[in-house]
């Protein structure tokens, strides 16, 4: 049609998306017309998850699988190089990958929880998001468009009392602080949004089978933030599409 242009197909990378909320997010975004990059610590798991999406109706050309170990400081850089070689630029970054202490140690606190737990959880929940942001947000700035969505938790909310396991709560509070600082740094970019959310209690591997929300319900606010319009919020913390205390 003369004079008409098709909007660009945005590409979303979701960390930790071989299962759970991450995989549900990929499925919902693909249905909305985005290209999705499914990631896992091994390429085999990522390929298996991507194949499952295609089997359930996703367009094969809209689904890409890539290895990304967010706890590896070089992981995001290696993934970014592979995506560049494939001609893919990340427009939407969903930092979903996370760890929580084993239930047998969840009651241990600041003074007695294992140092190894603290290191592993901070590497996955905080530094993993830092590395992916440093790898992919500069390209968003250059292109003038981007959405960064950090999947946090009410356990990371200082306003709600940091009620979760010590290392997990601190890691998510750090992720929230990262969200605020990055949003401040890119605020001159009108169409680049950086937000965090609490998905709620979701029937995932982390949330367990008795949780109150389905995977799609847990992914709903993720998808909303990933597809915000140009006049949408930035630098906020949300649950069920509504602001909650930091």
Textual characterization of the structure:
The chain has helices spanning 20-31, 43-55, 75-85, 115-143, 166-185, 215-226, and strands spanning 11-14, 35-40, 63-67, 92-95, 146-151, 192-197, 237-239, 242-243. The mean pLDDT is 95. It has an 8-stranded mixed sheet, with helices on both faces. By secondary structure, it is of the alpha/beta class. It starts with 10 loop residues before the first strand and ends with a strand. The longest helix has 29 residues, at 115-143. It has one domain (11-243): Rossmann fold, CATH 3.40.50.720. Helix content is 39%, strand content 15%. Helix 3 packs parallel to helix 4 (115-143) and helix 4 (115-143) runs parallel beside helix 5.
CATH architecture type: 3-Layer(aba) Sandwich
Helicity, as a percent range: 25-40%
Domain count, please report it. Answer: 1
Q: Give the low-confidence spans.
A: none
Strand line-up in the sheet with most strands: 3-2-1-4-5-6-7-8
Q: What is the overall pLDDT average?
A: 95
CATH fold topology: Rossmann fold
CATH H-tier superfamily = NAD(P)-binding Rossmann-like Domain
